[in-house]
Amino acid sequence: MRFLLRVSFPVEAGNSSARKDGFAAIQAILQNQKPEAAYFLTQDGKRTGLLILNVKDAAQIAELAEPWFLALSAEAYWSPIMVPSDLQKAAPAIAEAVKSYGQCLSSQESDRSSTPPLLQTTLS
User: Fold this and answer.
1) For residue 48, which of 5, 59, 93, 112 sits 20 to 30 Å off, Cα-Cα?
2) What ranges do the domains of the chain cover?
3) Average confidence (pLDDT) over 2-12
4) Phi/psi-derived region of residue 74, left when phi > 0, alpha when psi is between -120 and 50, beta in every other case
5) d(Cα 104, Cα 111) in Å, to the nearest integer?
6) Contact present, 35 and 51 (Cβ < 8 Å)
7) Reported pTM
8) pLDDT digits over 60-91, tens only?
9) DSSP E strand stretches across the chain
10) Which residues pair with 6 in a beta bridge?
């Protein structure tokens, strides 16, 4: 299963790594993990990497996150992601969810759309 791994590390840890060996730790981690794609940016004032990784077993999450924790005091955030073919495979399940649950929200929305906003807050 594909995951987006976002690693963010403090400026001080990044500066230390840059001064020490020009981010050799990042290069070594990337060579080991072989992400499908890797992008680097700043986010919330921290150096950040976005990696697309294939994870076959939940135990790999620790294996993939620990090098970032240890080398750069990073925070790690995981999100499962899909490519278009995954979304296409999911289409029958999405259609079933719409059939089973899609009317619930739209009927609530139509009920509220006919009620003036001031009354919506008092009726809720």
Assistant:
1) 59
2) 2-80, 92-123
3) 97
4) beta
5) 11
6) yes
7) 0.78
8) 999 999 999 999 999 999 999 999 999 999 99
9) 2-9, 37-43, 46-54, 75-80
10) 50, 77
